[in-house]
C-alpha cells in the first residue's frame, strides 16, 4: 500500500515505556511525511494514564531514538489535539485504532474552523506473543516487555 508523501504529518502519544507499537507509529509518520510533528503528552495531560515517566524524560528518549532523522519537531501536548486544530500546514495524522476517534474529532474541529481535514493514516496494533496488543500499561504491569514477550512470573 502506498501513501502520498505529505509535507507535514502529525503523530502524538504518551510514549511511555517506548515499545514496538510506538516504533511502528513513528516509522509510518516518517515514511509518509517530509516533516514529522511529534506531540508528547505533558505530565498533567498524560498523567491521566497513571504512573508514567516525566514528559522531559519521554521527549529525551524519543530524541535519542530518532538520531538518524532530522526532519521532526517534538513538542509537549497539553490536550488531545495539539497543533493539528490550528496549523493549516499539517496534511495528515498517523494514529492507532485506539487514537483514531481523536483524529475524527480533530477533523470535525478543523471543518468547523473552515480548515481542510487531515488525511488519517491508521496503523495496526502490534500484538504481543499472547495475541493481545502491546501497550505501555501492560509493560508497566510487568505482563510483557517492549517487544511483546510474555514475562514469566
UniProtKB/TrEMBL annotation:
Transmembrane segments: none annotated. GO terms for molecular function: ATP binding; pantetheine-phosphate adenylyltransferase activity. It comes from the Archaea. Its EC number is 2.7.7.3. One of its GO terms (cellular component) is cytoplasm. Pathway: Cofactor biosynthesis; coenzyme A biosynthesis. It catalyses: (R)-4'-phosphopantetheine + ATP + H(+) = 3'-dephospho-CoA + diphosphate. It holds the Pfam family CTP_transf_like. Keywords: ATP-binding, Coenzyme A biosynthesis, Cytoplasm, Nucleotide-binding, Nucleotidyltransferase, Transferase. It is found in: Cytoplasm. One of its GO terms (biological process) is coenzyme A biosynthetic process. Its main location: cytoplasm. Residues 11-141 form the Cytidyltransferase-like domain. Belongs to the eukaryotic CoaD family. Reversibly transfers an adenylyl group from ATP to 4'-phosphopantetheine, yielding dephospho-CoA (dPCoA) and pyrophosphate. NCBIfam families: cyt_tran_rel (TIGR00125), PRK00777.1 (NF001985). This is Phosphopantetheine adenylyltransferase. It comes from Methanobacterium subterraneum.
